[in-house]
Design goal:
The chain has 999 residues and is an alpha+beta fold. The protein has 6 domains: 153 residues, Jelly Rolls, CATH 2.60.120.380; 137 residues, Sandwich (Jelly Rolls); 62 residues, no CATH class; 70 residues, no CATH class; 172 residues, Sandwich (Immunoglobulin-like); 202 residues, Transferase(Phosphotransferase), domain 1 (Orthogonal Bundle). The chain has 15 helices and 57 strands. The strands form 19 sheets. Strands 7, 9, 10, 12, 13 and 15 form a 6-stranded mixed beta sheet that branches. Strands 17, 19, 20, 22, 23 and 25 form a 6-stranded mixed beta sheet that branches. Strands 41, 43, 45, 47, 49 and 50 form a 6-stranded mixed beta sheet that branches. InterPro entries: Kinase-like_dom_sf (IPR011009), Prot_kinase_dom (IPR000719), Ser-Thr/Tyr_kinase_cat_dom (IPR001245), Ser/Thr_kinase_AS (IPR008271), TKL_Ser/Thr_kinase (IPR053215).
């Protein structure tokens, strides 16, 4: 719930007025004091709830105090209801239902786990030996008040005494359905009396609502399940005929089943089936590449004994050349048509991410199998089309009717030239075109429709063919003039203009003054006989020109006077509201996929000037609360493409940079002047700050407008698969994509408005004297304290938290390098821990810039000696050579230390031995426990040759893939005690509070 006023938006949890959108100085009771006031107060689940450790839960978007919760000493409460097979029971959810949390906690739920629910236990000994699966059925019965909400159920087979329960299965009943069912394998040892041999089930609501549900558990022999999606003969024929793909969202979260996949028989995973059943000489490609996530897919056959036989297995992870080229992760599988059309081929997607659905695209490709049996071509899965040999083409690699300037199957009567606009691979004009000679003429061409971007010229104009395309042998297309221009025009010579050997005219001029792009003299000018390259005024037209000029001046003066009078009255009646420029602008997602870092130049087809903004305060400081502005000129230098520029403004309560407009759309050769307004709210560092912008070029104006809508109000946190899917589709029409930045060149003046974020002080002073007030800073710790076993604060950190720490570090280092700053002493001791929870906004901040340097033109930095900590420095640093690649090497050693939580080179006796070891090209040992993606990144970062190492921008992209892959390595967290981590955080906070209370 949000409260709106004219200026800014504020969450209902704020106890004070907001200073920016969703940002206030203090939050109300029950809310986490993170200034957004959008989350409930964190709890210490390792300690009992009390007045000092209250439980607040979000109900109807408001944090509400909860007093009815389950008290338990382990993950499982003592009081549980029993459920028996084939006996349905009803569960009532209302205000008297107790709060608790189950064994399946996702990344999104770690800080928000308590829900109203019911605990059940199922004795597996009730099932006979012949039964190896069970069906869990859930359906709505009654709704007391309000709307239906999603109902989840978590299942675990862990023992009650364990500290880390295993999430065996998870399912949910979506509010738009009436019922659901989940297949769950039965796995237990009937003879092992030391185990409880029970499934523990927690059924709970996603959000509070009063309703009743029914749960029923039944026996199941063997695996069952119908395909969620099927491609049959009719659908396959339609796809290959129309060329249209089908994108299907597989609801893994609601329709998936727990099972032992046929191709991974030793692992319980989530599966969802589909089938392909067609006969034909073409292929169907199954792709999840647009998700850019690691996916698994299998083909299997059903057997009579109820088990399945593995046929093929695909791992959607990129390797080798594909990985190095930045190819998206995801399966890309080509399925050939059946020789026997009666055979149904069964497939399934496999995932251990139970809550994430899978988006897959099915595309029919390569008709006639590209005539591969005749040697005409081959079907390419990666390109998803036929790759034809010489003399063959079209979508199926048939023999071309027109090749190398000749018709191959006759005289060419009634045929067009293949390769020309509107002419298909059978030398026939496409629908909407009419044959004229050997060219296909569009309806727009016949009607002289200049708004059609495919039209280069108008029939009858010089150098224009009958299909409205410039004759390429003697003419070229000028996007500026929208007409054909002689190729010889512009060579500073007077030439004869010919077309197919026929003389057309002689150039009037070429490259001189008063000469246009077609080598004609401008109106009122004639060729200069003394210098034929230029044109001079025609004396007979001077009097006419003078008369026209005088008349134009008179008209201009009259219009100027009228405009001035109109403007005067408008200014008297219109009030200028400067408050509009004090508001934060919408956040546009900084989409850099496929983008190149290119400054504004003529060669790059765009100009933005100035790039450095001082807002008129080049030699003076900018006062706090003063709004200043500066004009920026933007030019589209492309002759045939629309250009869009998006300014990605920082959303920060310390200042506002307001671009008017924020999104600029220019036609070809277009020009626009915009204004950037700057307002500072406190004394903070803004000099040399970079404000990024992205530049997009496309021949479609609507494409650019749609891109801006997709990016609007999106952040890294809320960018999802649906957004990526839309961008993948839109970017097919994007020709050029750049990014660069504007630099701020002014500084903030001193004031009493202090930068609370940089100073990080508490709100209340601890003392006051003649010189002012005294504050105490917030307590922070370095990462080294937590990852070294010898430290009293040693904690075993989760793998996904380690990746998040590395990601935050890489982002910070990327920012430093972007601003030409080298750190030169990157190590865990110089990383401040901001949070020990991977889902926090920021986990790591980089500190200790005592050795930092600005990069110089000569990368050796010969004036600096002995910088950095020896065990983290790169080999070249021992020779006092300092480059950005040296920071990358230090990052690799830091990443190794964070992953293993062990001291690097601890077995070495001296720093000299380490130096010799590193200079010989040897590195720290990496064993098989480290995931492959992390190993590849670290080894790419500590290569001996600095030029071969990754950049921090590339490291960030690699870490994004690793974070997505983290759920596949849950075995790395077997020794992690998350409750201990939370308890440690709480004790640290209490320790700081007690220190403050002493004052």
């Amino acid at each position: 719930m949000y409260l709106k006023n004219k200026k800014i938006e504020c969450h209902v949890g704020c106890s004070s007025s907001c200073i920016a959108n969703y940002t206030c100085s203090s939050c109300g009771i029950g809310y986490d004091q993170d200034y957004s006031c959008d989350h409930c107060q964190l709890i210490n689940t390792y300690k009992p709830f009390s007045s000092n450790n209250p439980l607040y839960v979000m109900q109807h978007d408001i944090c509400t105090s909860i007093s009815h919760y389950i008290v338990k000493s382990t993950w499982l409460p003592d009081n549980r209801n029993s459920i028996h097979i084939n006996e349905p029971i009803e569960l009532i959810f209302n205000s008297e239902t107790y709060y608790d949390y189950g064994p399946c906690i996702t990344r999104k739920e770690k800080q928000n786990r308590y829900r109203i629910g019911h605990w059940l236990e199922l004795n597996l000994l009730e099932f006979p030996d012949s039964v190896n699966y069970m069906q869990v059925q859930l359906k709505y019965k009654t709704i007391t008040q309000g709307k239906k909400v999603n109902v989840y159920y978590d299942i675990s087979d862990s023992e009650p005494s364990t500290s880390n329960p295993y999430c065996y299965a998870r399912g949910f009943l979506i509010s738009t359905n009436e019922s659901t069912s989940l297949q769950v394998p039965i796995h237990f040892d009937r003879m092992d009396s030391s185990k409880s041999n029970k499934y523990f089930i927690y059924i709970y609501e996603e959000e509070y609502a009063e309703l009743t549900v029914e749960i029923l558990i039944t026996e199941q022999i063997g695996k069952i399940g119908n395909p969620f999606f099927t491609i049959d003969q009719k659908m396959a024929d339609e796809m290959i005929t129309t060329g249209q793909s089908k994108t299907v969202i597989f609801p893994m979260s609601s329709e998936g089943r727990q099972a032992y996949p046929a191709c991974l028989p030793g692992t319980i995973m989530r599966v969802i089936r589909f089938s392909i059943w067609y006969e034909g000489d073409f292929s169907i490609v199954v792709s999840t590449k647009h998700e850019n996530r690691i996916r698994y897919m299998q083909e299997f056959k059903e057997t009579l004994n109820g088990t399945n036989e593995c046929v093929q297995f695909w791992n959607g992870q990129s390797h080798g050349v594909l990985y190095d080229s930045g190819t998206n992760d995801g399966v890309l599988v080509r399925i050939d048509g059946n020789e026997n059309g009666n055979e149904e081929r069964l497939f399934s997607f496999i995932s251990n991410e139970q809550e994430l659905d899978i988006s897959a695209t099915f595309t029919a490709i390569c008709p006639n199998n590209c005539n591969e049996k005749f040697g005409y071509g081959k079907c390419s899965t990666i390109d998803m089309k036929c790759k034809c040999n010489d003399k063959y083409g079209g979508d199926d690699c048939h023999s071309l009717c027109y090749y190398d300037g000749k018709f191959t199957n006759g005289s060419g009567e009634g045929q067009c030239h293949y390769g020309e606009p509107g002419c298909n691979s059978y030398c026939q004009c496409e629908p909407g075109y009419t044959l004229n000679g050997y060219y296909c003429v569009s309806d727009s061409c016949k009607n002289n429709n200049r708004n059609d971007i495919t039209i280069e010229c108008v029939q009858g104009d010089e150098g224009c063919r009958t299909d409205c395309i410039c004759e390429s042998s003697s003419f070229k297309f000028s996007p500026t003039l929208k007409q054909c221009v002689p190729i010889l025009c512009g060579n500073n010579q007077i030439d004869d203009i010919n077309l197919n050997g026929i003389f057309l005219r002689k150039e009037e001029c070429d490259g001189g003054i008063n000469c246009d792009e077609t080598c004609h003299c401008l109106l009122g000018y004639i060729q200069d006989e003394s210098n034929p390259l230029r044109c001079i005024e025609n004396s007979n037209s001077i009097s006419t020109i003078i008369g026209i000029t005088i008349s134009a001046i008179i008209i201009f003066v009259v219009l100027l006077c009228c405009g001035g009078i109109l403007l005067y009255f408008l200014l008297r009646t219109t009030k200028f509201d400067i408050n509009i420029y004090l508001q934060q602008q919408p956040n546009y997602y900084l989409y850099l996929s496929g983008s190149k870092k290119k400054p504004p130049t003529i060669e790059n087809k765009y100009v933005i000037e100035p790039l450095s903004l001082d807002f008129g305060n080049e030699n003076t400081l900018t006062a706090v609360l003063d709004t200043r502005f500066e004009k920026i000129d933007i030019r589209n230098k492309s002759g045939n493409k629309y250009m869009m520029v998006i300014f990605h403004t920082p959303n920060n309560p310390k200042f506002v940079f307001h671009f008017e407009p924020q999104v600029v759309l220019l036609r070809p050769r277009g020009f626009k002047t915009i204004t950037c307004f700057m307002t500072l709210f406190c004394t903070t560092k803004i000099k040399d700050m970079k404000i990024p912008y992205t530049v997009w070029f496309s021949k479609s104006k609507s494409t650019l407008q749609e891109i801006s809508e997709v990016l609007k109000n999106k952040t890294f946190e809320y960018w999802d698969e649906n957004c990526q899917f839309k961008m993948n589709k839109l970017c097919k029409n994007v020709i050029l994509h750049y990014h660069y930045f504007i630099t701020i060149q002014t500084e903030a003046a001193g004031s009493t408005h202090i930068d609370m974020d940089e100073l990080n002080i508490r709100e209340n002073p601890i003392a006051e004297g003649a010189m002012g007030r005294v504050y105490i800073g917030e307590y922070r710790s370095s990462l080294g304290e937590y990852i070294r076993k010898s430290s009293k604060d040693f904690l075993i950190l989760p793998y996904n938290l380690k990746l998040r720490m590395l990601y935050d570090t890489a982002r910070g280092m990327s920012f430093l390098h972007e601003n030409n700053i080298l750190h030169l002493d990157l190590k865990p001791d110089n990383l401040l821990v901001n949070s020990l929870f991977a889902d926090s906004a920021c986990c790591i901040k980089i500190t200790d810039f005592g050795t930092s340097r600005f990069t110089k033109k000569n990368n050796t930095n010969s004036g600096d000696k002995g910088l950095g900590t020896p065990i983290y420095v790169a080999p070249e640093a021992y020779r006092d050579e300092y480059t950005p690649a040296g920071d990358v090497y230090s990052f690799a050693i830091t990443a190794w230390e964070i992953f293993y939580q062990d001291e690097p080179y601890k077995e070495f006796k001296s720093l000299f031995d380490i130096k010799q070891y590193v200079e010989e090209g040897k590195r720290l040992v990496i064993d098989e426990t480290m995931p492959l993606l992390l190993k590849i990144m670290i080894e790419s970062c500590w290569k001996q040759n600095p030029q071969d190492r990754l950049t921090f921008e590339e490291i960030c992209w690699s870490l994004v893939k690793m974070i997505d892959d983290a759920p596949n390595h849950l075995n790395l967290d077997s020794a992690v005690d998350e409750e201990k981590i939370k308890d440690f955080v709480t004790s640290r906070q209490a320790r700081v509070q007690s220190m403050l209370d002493e004052y």
